[in-house]
Design goal:
alpha+beta; 4 strands
Length: 108
């Protein structure tokens, strides 16, 4: 959609400390590259909670909000791996945010 406003998909994940390395490996080697190969996914930034807890934030830059809703058909192996990883998450959530236009005089 050419006139769609830029958007971000924000994903919050909390895991047990013993699952941190596997979560990071999965994001870096499997999930992140798979998402970035999906049309409409333009970038990915990840963050860990400043207090050092095992809470993480992933922010995907999208061409528009519809990109996050587009059907993706992962391989059976990829889907199983995702289920396995997510089954150990303590808490998680995802939300889609749309860029707002700058108000006059905001400097943007």
């Amino acid at each position: 959609m050419a006139d769609a406003k830029p958007a971000v998909l924000v994903v919050f994940v909390e895991v047990a400390e013993e699952d941190v390395d596997e979560l990071n490996r999965w994001y870096e080697e499997e999930h992140g590259p798979e998402k970035l190969a999906t049309p409409g996914y333009l970038g990915l930034r990840r963050f860990r909670a400043a207090d050092g807890s095992a809470s993480f934030l992933a922010i995907y830059e999208l061409s528009g909000p519809d990109a996050a809703a587009a059907p993706v058909a992962p391989s059976v192996q990829s889907a199983r791996r995702m289920e396995e990883i997510m089954s150990r998450w303590k808490r998680w959530g995802r939300s889609i945010w749309v860029e707002i236009e700058a108000s006059p005089g905001s400097g943007r």
